[in-house]
Amino acid sequence: MHSLAQEIRSFSRANLRKQRTRVTTLTGRRIIETWRGACLHMEEEEEEAPGGGFVQDLSADLQVGVVKPWLLLGSQDAAHDLETMRKHKVTHVLNVAYGVQNAFLNDFIYKTISILDLPETDITSYFPECFEFIEKARIQHVTKRPNGVLTSEKFCLKPEH
């Protein structure tokens, strides 16, 4: 069995679909990012977003995606909804959201790494610490056989059976 870190290291860009990403900076500048070969191409849109770079979204996002049978991914909304966490039998939560508090300290094992969600943030520098937490939780739960999960710009861990 390969570790998550090994799988990520062996990943190829050739497996990805072509994608355009619209980024709105803190100042309201809009940038369109596209990959051309191995290079990231950025174009600035003419019109700036009103009110800076924040878009208010009041709808709850309670979806939890399965990355691996023992690793799930969800939003801060899912991580703050006890019913969702219990439904997925969450045991560990890796919170990598900036400024998002952990909601249920007595119910789950948390690891918090505050990462600012900006284009210039090098998230790869945080990978070793994240992988260590994920791997320890996976090994612990595969041994004990309970379920787990990850959530909210957070990871939840669930063991393989």
Protein described:
The chain has 161 residues and is α+β, with helices and mostly antiparallel strands. It is built from 4 helices and 8 strands. The strands form 2 sheets. Strands 4-5-8-6-7 form a 5-stranded mixed beta sheet. A 3-stranded antiparallel beta sheet has the order 1-2-3, with no helix packed on it. The radius of gyration is 18 Å and the shape is globular. The model is unreliable at 144-161 (pLDDT under 50).
Give descriptors for this structure:
161 residues, alpha+beta, five-stranded mixed sheet, globular
Order of helices and strands: HEEEEEHHEEHE
Global mean pLDDT: 78
Number of strands: 8
Measured by DSSP, the beta-strand proportion falls in: 25-35%
Question: Number of helical runs?
Answer: 4
**Unreliable spans:** 144-161
Relative helix content = 10-25%
Rg, nearest Å: 18 Å
Shape designation: globular
The biggest beta sheet is recorded as: 5 strands, mixed
Strand order of the largest sheet: 4-5-8-6-7
Head-to-tail CA distance between termini: 13 Å
Which structural class fits the helix and strand makeup?
alpha+beta
